[in-house]
Amino acid sequence: MYDYWHRRYLGKVRDRLTVRRHQPHETVVLLFRPVSRWPELLTSSFHLTQGAVEVQSVTRQYTDDGGQTLTVELEKGGTQFGQLLFTVPSPYTVMEATVDGRRRSVKELDPQVISLRFTLRDRASVRIRFSSKAAAEGEVSDGATIEEKLTRVRRLLLQEYGKHQWKRERDPLSELVRTILSQATADINSDRAFARLREVFPTWEAVRDGDPQAVAEAIKSGGLGGIKGPRIQGVLRAITEEHGELDLDFLEDLQLDNARSWLESLVGVGPKTAACVLLFSLGRAVLPVDTHVHRVSCRLGLIKARLSPEKTHEVLGKMVPDDGIYDFHVNVVSHGRRVCRAQRPRCDACVLAVSCDYYHRRGW
Ligand code: SF4
Questions:
Q1: b/e map 320-333, b = 16+ CB within 10 Å
Q2: Among 7-21, 113-127, 173-187, 278-292, where is mean pLDDT lowest?
Q3: Is 80 exceeded by the pLDDT of residue 132?
Q4: Are 220 and 193 in contact (CB under 8 A)?
Q5: In CATH, what is the architecture of 2-135?
Q6: Which atom of ligand 1 lies nearest, measured to the CA of 356?
Q7: What CATH number is given for 146-357 in this structure?
Q8: What's this model's pTM, rounded to 2 decimal places?
């Protein structure tokens, strides 16, 4: 079965459709495309005054919020006016359309067909971002409730990656500095930067009072040394001013919410950094939501699409039982690194596929 569109009519045919051009410059639209559950480029039409226009490629990207982005590359331009037609099956809607990076409006020709009209200059790159209402509403693919899904995901992750014994690797102050260094960089780089910082400055007091350029130089392998250096020195100064010494062990005696608020009151310390300090150095039940935890939870459908990492801390942190937080964090991070990677997730090798909204949406 195929969709077809001609003038204002969208229908279905069993086989190929022949469309005749009635007048020299009439817009002729035809398509031979199987009925699809996804947004598709239906066809293109241009007034062919200066040679043919060809669709060079159409690429589809799946976004973590359950939507999709279609990118259409055209070639053999000239200055020609025309349009691209896209099917937009329910529950998708158009969020944004751009031609060569500039926003364009789209026209609805039919509840399921939109038109993007523009003047083509030489080559053009057209991008349309579609959102999925079902994903935005947090639809659960296999009928399980979120709680049931989370329980199943935790069990499967434990089977796959095992149970972990919590062990303090660093004191809270070192963990705080280490986590600031890890912001927006890979662990391997921040580990190197942390080791170098400790090598160049033997005490945290020396880091606090050190030459800012020397601190930035010591941590440059972690990236953003010019930002993280002053941030670390500022945090160390703030702790000294408030407590008279560079020691964060007092956090152990504070109530969890107070400890978290105190850490987050430091400039440059957000919910993730605070959670890392509390969980890894003090064993407190707080879930750090790093890029892996956010991405995997989003794809699985444990959290609603478009939830910011900050909000995810609040929502996901309450869902996972206290005694399972450490295992959940460590296992989801392992899964995000090895299988559910940001680009090209290895869904065919994933033990969570049966519970994954992203997997079901793609129809595998
Ligand atoms: S099936 Fe697995 S790898 Fe694929 S998106 Fe879901 S959790 Fe990630």
A1: beeebbbbbbbbbb
A2: 7-21
A3: no
A4: yes
A5: Sandwich (2.60)
A6: 6
A7: 1.10.340.30
A8: 0.64
